[in-house]
Amino acid sequence: MKKTIASVCLCFLLTLSAAAASSREDLQARIDAAKLVLDQIMAAQDSTIPLNILQQATCVGVVPGLIKGAFLVGAQYGQGIVTCRTGHGWSAPVFIRMAGGSFGFQIGGQSTDLILVAVNDRGFQDLLKNKFKIGGDASAAAGPVGRNGTAATDWKMNAELLSYSRNKGLFAGIDLDGTSVSQNSEDTELYYGQPHSFDAILKGSVDVPPGAVEFVRDVAQNFVRAKQRKQQ
């Protein structure tokens, strides 16, 4: 029964999102919001993503304003963008969707900013799939926080993705087991004006559109700073 209600809640959120078709202006606003989230989190001094993780990152995803709603059972839905490291910098972004449900006594709703960091090639390969489930198809862990912090777990060996959330100014690792991540091919095609595969974009075969240059540059600069500080 709970699973049925959760599925209905999730379908409702998905229906609302589908009903509000994206325009190119909406997609640019999503990229701009992702850049702002990244800027604010990386400026948070000791409450940010550790340098040793940034230095190893193969992909970075930002989902600004993931919506979570609940009445006894919960559902969450959000849309964001992903860029991946290539042999000549960071790739143009692609658009993704995230959706999932939760159980247990809960009530209310909130908006949460999410960041996903792929820390090895397996995490990168996950993002090339049309759809995968965190904790099932892809192993993930709540990411450690602190500019110079180190993970207390064995994420280097087992985790493909590290996940973070920011709600009401608090930035912390989050467990997203059961959440699905899927390619948003429709929005990606709309933004680029023609169809491109996620594989081609994330491997660097497609030029970064002018509207996404600042976001990609932000990711690249943080990656370079992390490498430089690691070497000091």
Rg, Å, rounded: 17 Å
The rounded distance between the terminal residues' Cα atoms is 56 Å
Beta-strand fraction estimate: 25-35%
Mind summarizing the main beta sheet? 10 strands, mixed
Range of helix content = 25-40%
Q: How are the SSEs placed, and which strands pair?
A:
Layout: H1 2-19, H2 24-42, H3 51-56, E1 59-71, E2 73-86, E3 89-90, E4 94-102, E5 107-118, H4 121-127, E6 131-133, E7 140-142, H5 155-158, E8 161-167, E9 170-173, E10 180-183, H6 185-192, H7 198-202, H8 213-231
Parallel strand pairs: 7-8
Antiparallel strand pairs: 1-2, 1-5, 2-3, 2-4, 4-10, 5-8, 6-10, 8-9
Helix pairs in contact: 2-8
Which short descriptors sum up this protein?
single chain; disordered N terminus; 8 helices; alpha+beta; 232 residues; 37% helix; 10-stranded mixed beta sheet
